[in-house]
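At this stage, I wrote out one protein's amino acid sequence and its C-alpha cells, and that material follows here:
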Amino acid sequence: MRSIPLLPVPELYDLVKSINRTQDNLNKEVKDAVDYLQRSSGLIEILEKQLVEREKKLITLKEEYEKISQLSSLTSEQARAVTQKLEESLGKSRNLERAISLIINIVAGVVVLAIGVIFADEISSGLNFIRAMIFG
C-alpha cells in the first residue's frame, strides 16, 4: 500500500509545504506588525509630550492676549484723557526744569560777579605784571 490511487500524495505534500510557508510568512508579518506598533507607540508618546508642551505655551499666549486685549479696550475718550494727563505732567515738569535752570544761572552769574568785584585789584595787578614781562 504505497500509494493511494485516489489521493495524489505529492500534491498534498506540496500543499502542506505551501501552508507551512504561508504560516511562516504570516508569523513574520505579525512580528513585523508588532514591532511597528511598538515603535509607533513610542512616537505617539513623544508627540503627546510635545503637544502638552505646546498646549501650555498656547494657554500662556492666550492669557497674555487677554491681558493685552483688556488694555487695548480703552475707548478713545479714555485715551484722550490719558494723553491729556501725560501732556499736563510733562508740561509742568518742563516749566519746573526751566525755573530751576534760571535760578542756577542767576546764582552762578552773581557768584562770578562777586568774585570779579572782590578780586578786581589782584586780577588787575596780575595782568599788569604779565604785560610788563611780555612787553618789557
